[in-house]
User: Fold these one by one.
Assistant:
Number 1:
Amino acid sequence: MHSRVLTTSVGITALAAALAVVLAQAPAGAQAANAAAKPAAAKPAPATTQSAPAAKKWTLPRTPEGVPDLQGYWTNNSYTPLERPDGVNKEFYTLPELRAVEKKNAEREEEQTTPGTIADVHYDFTQFGLDRSQTRMADNLRTSVITNPENGKLPPVTPEGKKRAADRAEARKKQGAQYDQVQNIPIGSRCVYMNGAPPMMPPAYNPAYQIIQSPGYVTILTEMLHETRVVPTDGRPHAPATVRSWLGDSKGHWEGDTLVIETTNFNDKSAFRGASENMKVTERFTRTSDDAIRYEFTVDDPSTWERAWTGEMPFVKINGPIFEHACNEGNYGILNTLAGARKEDKRAAEEAARRQARSEEQ
Amino acid sequence: MRNRSVAVTTGMVIVVASVWLAVTTVAGQAPGYRAPRTKDGKPNLNGVWQAVNEANWDIEGHSAAPGPLWQLGAQFSVPPGLGIVEGGPIPYKPEALQKKKANYADRAKLDPELKCYLPGVPRAMYMPYPFQIVQSTEYVMMAFEFAGAVRTVYMKKQQAPADSWMGWSNGHWEGETLVIDTTDFNDLSWFDRAGNFHSDKLHVVERISAASPDHLNYEATIEDPNVFTRPWKISMPLYRRLEKNAQILEYKCVEFAEDFIYGHLRKVPLVK
């Protein structure tokens, strides 16, 4: 215990120093406010920005092919929202403010374990580690993932984007009630798609990724739905425009020491925040320390937003391995809710028949 | 001089013997083929690969047959295949053979492929979809097109955290050959559409080596004391997908299987 306490306090001291540097630089906007707050035990806190003067000189690791080595198990686990919350008028929190936000969110998630509630029957979040606070946080002092527009909010939606959203809502309504058929249930509950496409936003649980590199490829395995993006980095073109998919077609290249992945060819169903199938996402992965990758992305879809927008968050290291997320294979939730709905239909029909019979008797 | 010639002769005998051994132990391998190397000196098996055979219908030799749905005509009838099982029928225990026959009779309802379930091993290797080998120093990943399945082969041995559909794979190199030892399966996957099956005691040892720039030799020893009387082997070539810019595409089949799985629970029934 004693040594762990010591390590932790050393870590916190080092972290505070790193944060001070980050915060001092933050208004200039030149450096990411990436902070790794829980360094691995027995290791001093690694510097999270390359320019931190107090940090020991760090050498970017490289693969046998000589490109930056991004390999390992990573998380982007975070409570940082995509858009800056109303009433927050600054770009960065202080560390105590961030901790307060995390605590509030953790408490809200833990409410789902309150005995006797429906949420508690669904999942025991605490027991299965489904609340985010039980996993390492990829601390992000930013008040929103969005960095541009500078107000931290999505740009205005175009008239075409608004019409599309209305059309989609209308089409969904025509399909009937949520439990009339499996197709009406949200896509994530059906284990079809869980935001595995870029931009890589933190999921509600299982925020684990593995990156491995082979000659000419970077492969990103996402724990949720075992989504695997095998990304060639040799500058080859995208798949033909007729080939569309939920995750899109990812093609990469290196710009200096930054991995750039451009993804197009989406179908019209993954629809990140109401986007169209013409969305283009450009991701930039830059290793900033042994412990962190800076992840930046730009979403470009002129038919949905008046201009392109950009976000940023850190990925930090976690221990592996990635578990097999066999979701569809054990999806009793769909079976049981649909079966329950049909039973309810039957009960209602019988009740109506009884009422009819009674009124005829009178 | 004399000593040297003895040494040379002895050396040649050893070389010849080991080539002969290689030829006889790995069926079909071109004698002496040496795969290109990765930067860390290992045989380079990276690429997009695919089996070209009929094993997914039935890993044993089988005749052509009508498909499960007359409405699909000749599109989905069963193509004949020589099979990939070595040395005669699969050595089922008597009670297991009964279960296999029951599986076969009910295959149009029971095959996990119908539900887009993870295919397990070795089935993932010969489904009629490509897969990509991604080879780094510590891990060899296999990304399969079917159901977006994935296997990670740990080249530094690790314990399985839990049973799973795709099992837990530890690997090592034996010369030209990638040897993969996979255990910790659940008992839910099948070997093919003909109902060949296993229990959670399944143990698969695969040997994969390059036989030419564009094909691999694949063999697997299958052991399961709950189901088989002895270990048995399958073998087949895997071919490189040579199309320009060949890649694994997305085949998220859950969506296509939902009415198969949940259709009976629709408010408005599907047209029969």
Number 2:
Amino acid sequence: MFPWFKKKKSARIAKDRLQIAIMSDRASSDFPFMEELKRDIIEVIKKYKGVSNIEIKKASDKDTEAISIEVELE
Amino acid sequence: MSKVIAVISGKGGVGKTTTTANLGLGIAMQMKQCVVVDFDIGQRNLDMILGLENRVVYDMVQVMDGEATLEQALIRSKANRNLYFLPASQTKDKSVLDSEKISNLLQELRKKFEYVILDAPAGIESGFEHTIEFADAAIIVVNPEVSSIRDSDRAIGILDSKSQKAKDGHEVEKMLIINRIDPEMVERGEMLEADDILEILGIELLGVVPEDRGVIDASNQGQPIILNEKSDAGKAYKRIAKRICGIKVAVEHPKVRKKGLVGKLKGIFS
Amino acid sequence: MKCRQYNVKVFEVGVEDPESFIEFIEANYILIRNHLLSIKGEKSEKVISYLEDKGLRYVWNMELPLPKRGVEELCLVSPGVEARDESRERMEPEPESVEEGDEEEYGESLEALKIVGRALRSGQYVEHNGDVLSTDRINSGAKIAALGSVVALGKVEGDISSAGECIIITPVKRGNILFHGTKIENEKLIYPLNIIRYRGDKITVEAIDTKQSKRK
């Protein structure tokens, strides 16, 4: 009937869907510098002791953004 | 016997993901069990085109790493119960792909589904190579445009040399879909036509999909265009899906629409 | 102590002035990039830094042991500069003759004819130390580089480089055709089947008559 109404509607739908999808992508993604951070930490610790494994996880709650680092020594 | 089909293009943005989604749905509509797999690690797209993004819990990398089972990760389509979907990881990157794990995953999928359609990433690097590695056949999606054709040619060359089938001395079945053809531009000599493209690429034509504004509208809503009875692109995808299932349907080349009086008036006022 | 023995192809070349030398190497790069360059003449910083940049391997004014057979007299020429080997006499063939009078210009050690029987796709590359026959398409982004002649019977949209006796080719709209380092303008390839070759010192494009002709 009024074709432009329908078009506006689907763009609106797209916007809503994208906002949700992107927010959820951002929440689950690692920090962009994760790999470099791991490498740097291994380098530093290697000066004192060998590293056999390293895990970095997000440890944020709703008030603070934090990461937890677990290093397994050789 | 299950068939694993990789959808590739070389160049990005030509309609691989849209084609994968629509063909998956089309095959499901032919009453065949079908799964579409998003191989674009780190750049998840197939979920949005299918309108299933809010149902994603586990992804294919988690399945390959054993963190989740296939049953947990597979998502059933709302539009057709014969269609399932396996999402890509959004956080990992292509370096996590491992041939052995991929082979195992595909074996598992072959047991459950008659058609396994893999949506390859754009480009010709490792992600693409992993997608084609164990494919039985490849659908090459091309736009009637020089850089798309050249990139597809490159991708076909790599397919012929790097896939496992090629290494075993078999030829991978290759089929071409020409996407976004504009019959008016072809008529005016401003766009390459199907024959020109076939001459250069030298592979079988699977089908031709016309340019259709409804495709964006469909993506916005997460309703693949094949569900739109009125859309020319949707009808083309339906025919192609039938052909994949072995039903002989003639290839229709999009024709210039003869404008009626209303059409001509619309043209004047737009 | 680890040691290995293997053969390397040597390209012996004299340098007169740095600029024309660099131009020459640039024009023939694809054909000699895997050779060891044996350079005779005055050393110059300009040339050395160019060679280092390009990753070319070279020795300067070194008498390398020559093999008993397999020294080829090559005629790689840079654009606009003639550097023919005067010690060898060329027999000028009659303009009407179809058969060539010249034989064995390149010595016995050239490798056999390479036949490319399928289409060459973008990114695919054929490099050969002899003549090449291509029977199918050469797509845009594909390349043939031959030390010998190239005969391309299919549609050519890619690049061909030959340092041989001739290039035989159908009309070309898009590709780049290099004969002994000189780019042949596509507009000159007007015949259904063109032969690019030297007539004396000039590069010519002539028609190959595809119909049977009876000589008088």
Number 3:
Amino acid sequence: MFPNRFEYRRPGSLAEAVQILAENPDAKLLAGGHSLLPAMKLRLAAPSTLVDLSQIEGLRGIAANGALTIGALATYNQVHDSAAVRQAAPMLADTCGIVGDPQVRVRGTLGGSLAHADPAADLTAVVLALGGEVTVVGSGGERTIAADDLFVDLLTTSLAPEEIITEIRIPDLAGAKMAYEKHEHPASGYAVVGVAAVLAMGDGGTIRSARLAVTGATAKATRLSSAEAVLAGKTVRTETIAAAAAAAADGLEINGDLYASADYRRHLVGVLTRRALERATG
Amino acid sequence: MPTPSGEQPQRLGVGSGELPRWEEGADLSIVGRAHPRVEGDAKVTGGAQYASDVRLPGQLYARVLRSPYAHARLTGLDTGRAAALPGVHAVLSSANAPEIAWYEDSLLFDRTLRFVGDEVAAVAAESEEIADDALRLIVDAYEPLPFVLDLDTALAPDAPKLRPSGNLNGEPTVYERGDLAAGLRDADVIVEETYVTQAALHNCLEPHGCTAAWDGDRLTLWSSTQSVFDVRQRVAEALGLPEHHVRVIKQHMGGGFGSKQIAWKQDVIAALLAKESGRPVQLMLDREAENLAVGNRNPTRQRVRLGAKRDGTLTAIAVDAAQQIGAHPVGGEGADVPAIYQNLYRCPNVRTEQRLVFTNTGPAVAFRAPGHVEAAFALEQAMDQLARALDLDPLELRRRNYADQDQAEGKPYTLPEALGRCYDLAADAFGWAGYQKPPAAGPKRRGVGLAAHDWAGGGGSPPGYAWVKWNADGSVDVVTGTQDIGTGARTGLTQVAAEELGLPMDRVALHLGDTANGPYAPVSSGSATQSTIGPAIRAAAADAKRQLFEAASEFLEAPPEAMTIRDGKIHVAGEPEDRATPVGDVTAQIAPTMIQGHGERGPNPEDKSVRTVGAQIVEVEVDTETGEVSVCRVVAAHDCGRIINPTLVDSQVIGGVTQGIGFALFEDRVVDAGTGVVLNANLEDYHVPTAADVPPIRNVHLNLPDREANPTGAKGIGEPPLIPTAPAIANAVYDAIGVRIRELPLSRRRVLDALATREAPR
């Protein structure tokens, strides 16, 4: 349970951090460290260099102006406690209050969770369902990646090796109904399956559009497009929710492990989709 | 014990059998009180010393290289690079270690490896990090051998063999009374089912390990063990040392649960590494090694048959039990599964058969109420099924088959009424008779379940000894060679001493856990520490008190038999209260003459059976969509004789029920079928219940002194509370959803599967 030897760097600016990443292709960024350091202790990860982001200014702010902007180094607790986040995207605030355990929530960061792209993370599905996007800085300057394009595969994102997430943007979702339902692993607390649902509402109780995303079941956080199609344009009724839940796992490539088989997870995707929709609209 | 001449040896001090009993209702001022743990301050401030806290000048840290194969022969081992790593001081393996016999037919470092985790080599270095790195530099080569990982494959006719004699450890053990076939013929109803229990891992908070230090040819070992005397004997034997050259110390312990009731290899490996390096060596197991190599609860398969008359009277009980004991006979691997079938219910026709099966998995060892926990899951579900088949209340069925004597031993119980009283207490406290299920809401269903237990332990394991030394200032040191494995034995035993001596608790210091400083006491297993050593301490205190009264007789001008001690003062019958003399006045007068009391735990009664019994009732809620079972509340009632300290008893019950919830719902060692690798030898995948999983647990106190068991009337409570929890939960799950699950754990997936194939209630 001891990591390999590594260099430790603590740059004072983003430019310096990008520079270090460019010079050390197998370097890793250290934000909260609650995913990276255990992996290093198990020697599942052995970066030559750790780049500690903690001294870089301006990566922790949370601002709301219709849309919501959250600095990548904002901790789960900061997001959870933010009145602006609670107002604009209560599901995001709530989920940051149930991630991991208190120690994780004190240190862990929203940007770190998205960059790590753990297949059982909570926030990946939540940000995906919220239609969020991330701003990244790299040697080629700044660009924006939609959550829809961020998660590529197991622990893999579309970030270039020298790119750093600087902030997360959540669009203006005024009036939307949302909820995240999770069936957690009894030991680790990770999502065996988690489903996040966001319903943009039109007139007269109709669902203008729906964004649903699943985590835990698949290699990466994934949209539940079959369920979304069922919901779009419908009014909120028990039958509509049941139909969406029944369709939720359609087309998903679901993984099994020693705790939960693929079949069990498939079943849970339906159950949790229904529960998330019921809670969002209840 | 007869001497060679046939005479009884002269005994120093008092045998506990000679003491007057503490009767029910006796006027006791310290025993029976919820005194806080005497070591509590040290524990909460971090001052209490555990095996891993030992720090000696020049101390090294050791790590063990373990077999990556389930069954293999070691064909090559090159430790050269490891030994050359700066900071490494000693490397041990089959290449250079002495050939020390271990596990009956194996060696300390054997070249035949029989499970993933079997010891291959060990390294001592200046830090754990260096030792870890050194292990990675060892080049090891193996010839893999065919292996078996579970009962089915091990018992197959053409199974690969762990040993030339096959995969059975000895012949099957058969117990019979009456005529089983006749009992089954006479039955109006027969229940016949097979139950499967899993490998649970002890997961003591403090892992196994020790620190070894030599002073010339004398060895001191700080070991995390349930028996300092057994470790001393085993280590001395392995190293060819006389026993007085080995000192074993255990002051505080983060749990043992049976897994530390024997000496394991690391006690000897650490000593050898210390000898080799000339430095003290600490060898603590990490969580993975802990969960591979030093014990687990044996998986079982139990085919159960019950026969009963229409009125519920049992006519036949039979079990055919196969138990997976892992790769090695470590001592204590053969859990007593049959016992509860033989004794929990009155039945004339009983047959039990037990087979112990070797597999290429980590060795099984006693785990809190070994055998009884596994057996109760099967028997108590079968009884529940029988009750429903007969349309009888499950509690009523149990009452109709009440056993008031030990049928296997053919002796009456010392407390034949205890189980019936536990039934009454638990049922009343739970509200069993009037229980109404709440109306089903959404996917959640509620149910209640009951289970009883019998436990062969708790009565004590004589002999055991204690000394009392009365100091000049009137304070007392009590010395015994037992150990406190985290249960609070220190506190309970101090209460017994203080009560008998008539001193306040803070005038008594109890010293234990050191072979050099106390007389023999047995292993802390079988829930026996309080009931073995409590009477010995009481006897030593009585012996010392008698001597004090004799010494005081001259000064106080009163006969010894007129004296009593209360709150540290000697009272003489007929004298006014304010004339009482502080004990210290007498001890100061006679100083430096020291009063010393010696006590011995006398034998258990020969004509009666001392056992412990109890019952638990639980309410569960099942989420029929996810399969999740939540335990809503637990009511427990257990016989432990006189309660010495209610807080400590409640703690044992809460801890036992908590482990029972884990056994019922979560805990399950998963072994990869293709390799024999344990996939969840950690606490991230293997769920041990946490505070969030534990519902309100109410422990109802029976507190019925067992006057015939021993002169304190107290019996053990360490193990029994775990026994009935899992079957009570399984019975409650059945009550909730009408599905009987006969395989543990009741995982969410298993509950859902059972719901999907819902069988008709039987």
Number 4:
Amino acid sequence: MARTRISLQGDPVRGVPMEIRTLIAHPMETGYRPGADGKVLARNLIRRFRCSFDDGARTQLVFAAELFPATAANPYIAFHFTPPGNGTLRFVWEGDQGFAQTETLAVRVA
Amino acid sequence: MAGRQLFSRSRRLVLSAGMGMAAGVLQLRPVAAAELPADLLAAMQVFAQGAAVREGRVVLEIAELVDNGNAVPVRVAIDGGAPATAPVVAMALFNERNPQREVVVAQFGVLSGRPEFSTRIRLATSQKLVAMARLQDGSCWFRSVDVIVTLAACIEGES
């Protein structure tokens, strides 16, 4: 399991956009660099990121991104979220070599 | 004397030719879509899904002089926010001279609320970056920025 950090900027308020910052520990090996032995290192990327919100009745998309080799190691992604009410945020990272990680975060609006 | 006159005339010719070339280069400076490299334009058109790509509206925030190309903070947003009639569906970031043209392709859901994102990218060398936004009405906008990179990513191996 990779280390992740997720932070909400401020307290969630119904209907008010707030920033979410996410960080995940991952080498994001591009598949273009030679290693110490001169051979090209195998590509190992996070390919997809997805954040969705589940309010108990349905799941709706907040933000999704396709990542390419030009994304820096330990991908940092910040975006906005408008809470429609109480519920759970789900963060999913998927990538090469079967990499998959899911984090959840409960949201209670003011 | 005749030889001396000939020499000065040719010198004037060379000077005027040089000035003409300099003026031509200055006129070329603003980057239009037609002046971007073909492979970059091709990647942009795939994202545009056939729509005409127009310059403007998109904001691309990045340091003009990048010390370290391994992790460059960048922010993509919409100038003055998206119009309520046509929210932003997707945004993308492209580069000119990394091994692959695409950097990030982002998709905004109904709960996003603000069409912008920030991330950190790698830059192989000094080059152009292009940020794009696709609106719900199908229109596509882009902004291009030149960056200078002093320490390149991607090229050197594992240290």
